[in-house]
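Input.
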Amino acid sequence: MTVKRALLSVSNKEGIVSLAKQLVELGVEIISTGGTKKTLEEAGVPVIGISDVTGFPEILDGRVKTLHPIIHGGLLAIRDNERHQNELREHHITPIDLVVVNLYPFQQTIAKSDVTFAEAIENIDIGGPTMLRAAAKNHQYVTVVVDPADYDAVVQELKEHGDVSAEMKLKLAAKVFRHTAAYDAMIAEYLTNKTGEEYPESFTITFEKKQSLRYGENPHQTAAFYQKPLGSSFSIAKAAQLHGKELSYNNINDANAALQLVKEFAEPAAVAVKHMNPCGVGIGATIYEAFIKAYEADPTSIFGGIIALNREVDKDTAEKMHEIFLEIIIAPSFSSEALDILTQKKNIRLLTVDFTAPDTNEKLLVSVQGGLLVQEADTRTLSDGEIKVVTKREPTEQEWESLQFAWKVVKHVKSNAIVLAKDGMTIGVGAGQMNRVGAAKIAIEQAGEKAKGAVLASDAFFPMDDTVEAAAKAGITAIIQPGGSIRDADSIKKADEYGIAMVFTGIRHFKH
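Output.
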């Protein structure tokens, strides 16, 4: 056995007794600290206390116990360096060959709703990360384990070879540095949030792997899905999947887009999404009515779409959904009858999300080649704007209801974006165009005759009056847009010419 001495000090006691017993059977001497030492002693495992090794007591309520040259000399000594070995003998230091450490539960501590700042600070581990980093740096000679999932593999190699392979030591060391980096990133984020500093000089974040994905946007691209450790509960990352095959990269993107839009509505609402854009949105007195409107908004594009609803899926709605091919349905819940109907299709994914959970405003991150763009989420609503009717005619009550509905939708459409709406449903969506009038023409063409008497929402101002002209010729009667163009007067004049009511919000909703 090359491994002669092991240091065990864990917050998570899962599997530690079994590991220790197997190490002892292999002739390994175990040293340990505080709670871990007590756990091992109670299980009948022979163990030497850290204080017996260092000749110095644990002090400051356990804040200082392993921070000692006797420990770190044993971890960091290069085994085939003669000078190092002479110094170990001179100072009576025994090498430590195996380190098993996991850290104070900082993440679990700050996740508690009633956690105090003092409690959070006390759960910042110092000695643990120091030992892990020391052992991982010297991984050529020291095996370091931070994850209980690795215990069995380490023991197996010790039983078969009397040592751990260089390949596994390197993998375990890399895992340690990932672990301590994530741990420090979480502490940095917590303390930075406490200071109120939004964009610090360095931006360190951490995510936990939720699942490997079959592929990315295309089959030739690899991908994985990571979630924020303490991210919003109102999210696809925290959704429960009740049925269907696992989500793909594009599924997750589209599902997130659908969820972000449907949360805009308090009344029963249904959203259909394809390729990150809503193809149909409806509201109604019931979730069935809302879904029928979302479906009728674009019966072609909804095929293979992602549906999000903000009410329980009932039997009638499920029967209607069962008639068409859908990839995903997201809702707060499904009735038992709805589940019986929808699960008849093997592959459809059924997800539930807690719509009552607080929706935390997390920063939005977009990777670019060599960098990262970070911005706050676009959470502004009409109540945050400066609403002005800029035309001679004001919107009717019915038009105003449609304008408010269309404004909520256009916020979630890729720019340049135009949305036409009437009677609580979208009837035309123009998305992702290089010019605004082009987006309007797509939405108008989709709406056809339904455009007569409809309203139009634009995510940004009109640079010229051509969009108003196109809207008027299609029979649109009211427009909502941010305003702010140097040629606003031209658009206002054109709206007045056709008797269109136009509202400025003072809020732009670009979405790239």
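The radius of gyration is 30 Å.
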